[in-house]
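Appendix B. One record, verbatim.
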Amino acid sequence: MSQWRKALQRPTVRRSTIIIALALIAIFSAAIMMRIYPAKYGFYLHEFDPYFDYRATNFLVDHFDQKGIAGFADYFSWKDYGTWYPEGRDVARTSQEGLHFTGAITYLIARNILGISITLYDYLVLFPVFIGALTTLVTYLLVRKISSASAGLLAGLVIAFSPPIIQRGALGWFKSEPLALFLAVAGSYLFLTIYDERASRLSQVIRAGSAGLMLGLANTAWGGSMYFNAVFGGLFVLAPFLKVDLKRTVYLGSLFTATNLIFSAAFPRPGPEIISGLAGIALLGGLLFSTAAYSVKSLVDPKDYPRTLLKVIFLAVLGLAVYASLGSIPSLGGRYQTVLDPFFRSNNPLVQSVAEHQTPTGAEYLSSYLALTFLAGFGALMMMRKRTIYAGFTLVLAIGALYVSGSFARLMVYSSVAFAILAGIGLHELTSTMLRPSTTSSGTKKKFKIGETRTAMKLVYSIFIIAIISLPVAFPLQTNWLQTADAPVSIADASTNYRATIPDWLETLSWINHSTPPYQPDGKPTVMAAWWDYGYWITVMGNRTSLADNATINTTRIAQIGQMFISNEKTGMKILHDLKADYVVIFVVGQSFTLQGSTQRIYLLGNAGDESKKQWFM
């Protein structure tokens, strides 16, 4: 009878659990609202690359509908002749396959299993919004594992509002970063849980394997995910110097590395080259060092271990130098060289012409992180005092993120993650100190004065923390976090820098689609010549064949188009004839206004049209 009474008892939930659950719901909701903000300008895919990613995902969905799961295999032999005329594009070898497959499979689950009635286009427009919101939750789990629940809540809140992350993960940004960041953070959390003392052997194996698969999928979704491979490689190198079960690191780290690299190598991009590339060298080299250190630890006297470990380090560095001297490490592209060496800037005009490849300015760092710098710095100091695997992971991730983000604005997503984690830890450590119960002392009056002082300090501290966290959301007025989120998707404002709905490009693409023939009388597809920024729009929205796009596969072709734009009529027409183009798309941005106190109209050219890109044409 007592067992029945116990079973029917109302379950009890701790107040702290309810508060955390409500806080997570609020953070998740805030993340969605911040990312869906641009919908007021129009419900479209953002920027340029997401349009091709939609085209590729649509190919997978269509072929699944025709052939079932076997239709997915067609993707790997697909050559898209709607782009880069006349050669076409080998999609699987030049694309983020992981992004396309994830988008297609999750859409098919939503449509066929969950019964959600939504078009693929609308689904992909919303995809980054919800993936970004989910990233706040896995960030909470990661930082809770590293520090505490309170630290995790602040970290999740920072990810929800961080401008660099929102700029590359808002409505319509069906591109690499949102998915890759979610997978990398989730994989990192799963990997760190293998050190739970209460976890069974089977559970540890499943977690390590799952973490490797997540990192592998992230590698196929975004080339920038290679950074997390370097983080884990650095963690493996650091592990012998930490208070950690080195045996667990070696065995489960081997499983993690194997699943990660094998899954990545199974796709044409990055392909098997990842194993001999920097990502593979970092992971395998770090794991090899941990294995050597574990072997040494079990063979030598504990007193001789530090000295022997130094010898192992010397041999490892020597071996790496020999490996590099043999030319076994593949050459790096300009973008990767710039990331590794901040003083190196690629001379390739294509790299220089992309906004997200520009070096972040001090103003960008200040507007994004100023309020968090104090807390993050304190969190870093606290982590340096510890020798746990969690502290090691945090410091390797944070130091590396701050280093690589100094090269490309696009990589500020990593510095945002670093500041989120460190600020969360700093808040927890500082709050634990400031709000610690006051110690008792003899004498009632003295005890009362101490308690009164502590209460006042707690009040001042609470106001200060709330202010410092809330400040960047609303101030400064023109560059606060809310203003950063208030930006139209590119096609809604006609790819200008105005916060307004400008239908010019939408009308142009509609005219191209409905008023130009898909094929010429000789059977050749109708070819549109335009600067490469707009190739994806022309192919997907205009439904016409383009000469070049953001894949930048053929730099010679792009140079020809640039030469055509700045040449005289005779030379330009000859280039168009050689390229077999039937139409030319010219994009010029201008504005008309009247000066105050005057009736004369002023016409001003410039603000992101072709006239603003002439330096890249030359």
